[in-house]
Amino acid sequence: MGAFTRRKGRGWGKLGRRHFRHPKDPRMDETHYQAQNLRVVAQSGALYSVLATIGELDVASASIFGVALDQILLRPGTPRVILDVSQLTFCDSVGLGQLIRARKLIESRGGALALAGVRTNLSALLRITALDSRFPRHPSVEAAVVDLTFPLGGDAGSRRDPHMPSSGTA
Fold it and tell me: What are the start and end residues of every segment in region (Disordered) (predicted)?
């Protein structure tokens, strides 16, 4: 399978993308990207985006990850991106370069990037290359959402939703 995949009854789709609403959260748009050994699912919402990587992020699949990231960054506003790497089975130096590129692009736009579900192999790679302090890590996407959406600190009860009008009290 290459950058183009054949979908049953749909003809050739550019980069194997298919748009539909996420069944759990109707406010999230979801797009799929497929490479030889990697599938990237990009979910975009108003407050944050999630890039879920499934498979191997290596020299053969790094370009498809870059395409998915670039599509996320085309959205207006400050990018808050969560990379869900819980199903990432392998990452080589080219894949690591894509992660660094993602962090630099997002931070250059004033945004924030977090890794969710980091497995031991990627954790060891980040530690060996001294990049572990550059990527905030969270045990799950849900924990990363709380951190990126409400980065003020304190408990969840004291955090204010930026889309809710202020009550005028401090």
Answer: 1-28
Contact 91, 124 (CB under 8 A): no
- Reported pTM: 0.73
Q: Are 82 and 45 in contact (CB under 8 A)?
A: no
Quick: pLDDT tens for 10-48.
Answer: 333 333 334 333 345 556 788 999 988 999 999 988 889
For the segment(s) 5-148, the CATH number from 3.40.720.10, 2.60.120.650, 3.40.50.300, 3.30.750.24 is 3.30.750.24
Contacts of 7 (CB under 8 A, 6+ apart): 13, 16, 18
Pairing of strands 5-7, 11-13: antiparallel
Q: Are strands 38-44 and 29-34 parallel, antiparallel or unpaired?
A: antiparallel
Q: Tell me the pLDDT tens digit for each residue of 97-144.
A: 999 999 999 999 999 999 999 999 999 999 999 999 999 999 999 999
| Every domain of the chain and the residues it spans | 5-148
